[in-house]
Amino acid sequence: MRILISNDDGVTAPGLAALHSALADYAECVVIAPDQDKSGASSSLTLDRPLHPQTLANGFISLNGTPTDCVHLGLNGLLERTPDMVVSGINLGANLGDDVLYSGTVAAALEGRFLGGTSFAFSLVSRLPDNLPAAAYIARKLVEAHDRLALPPRTVLNVNIPNLPLEHIRGIQLTRLGHRARAAAPTKVVNPRGKEGYWIAVAGDAEDGGPGTDFHAVMQGYVSITPLQLDRTFNDAFDSLNGWLEGLL
Ligand code: MN
């Protein structure tokens, strides 16, 4: 098997190296990752300039693009042989609830949808790398078990790992996405030449984070796995919208 590994923290991120190490003796791994931190890139593609892959000393391929660019190229001609699976991470920082809308980590996994199998996105609920070994161990266990999965195509498993050493992780819970409250207002800054700007603030707190949600699972010390699908059609809205459209034109 051939696994394409990517991330959004960038090609030099410790979580990427940890994920690669965990999978290197399990499958043939190719790493293609952004040359800089692209957290928050969601599923953006770079369309205004060419992309230049560069192979680094460790064999990882660095790309001047987004996580989605990396996987897109990896599955569409850059590599001699098409990978069988996409695995993304390990992100330093949670990707819970509304985060999946912005996450480049999740986006990289979503870009693997054409392969027909299940892609994985891994995030450690910490900005610090201390518990990456536990997260990498769990990533390996889950990827190894992929051949027993029977999910429809275009499915991503969004995995969030609590910031704990392995012996303190209580198990795995299947969860739904919770919701975050709105983020705080952007922080206004002024540069030395007097030009004003804004830093987008950190994500809001969990607003819907009760039992059954991804937020709750990691808070309780469990690995959270949320199955994500690409189809965001709101089927239950059809009845109401049919009434709304009646006689409109
Ligand atoms: Mn990130």
TrEMBL record:
Q: Which cofactor does it need?
A: a divalent metal cation
Q: Which reaction does it catalyse?
A: a ribonucleoside 5'-phosphate + H2O = a ribonucleoside + phosphate
Q: Which SUPFAM superfamilies match?
A: SurE-like
Q: Does the keyword GTP-binding apply?
A: no
Q: What keywords appear on the UniProt entry?
A: Cytoplasm, Hydrolase, Metal-binding, Nucleotide-binding
Indicate the segments forming the Survival protein SurE-like phosphatase/nucleotidase domain, all copies. Answer: 3-181
Q: Which family does it belong to?
A: Belongs to the SurE nucleotidase family.
Q: What is this protein's function?
A: Nucleotidase that shows phosphatase activity on nucleoside 5'-monophosphates.
The protein's name: 5'-nucleotidase SurE
Species for this entry: Pseudomonas fontis
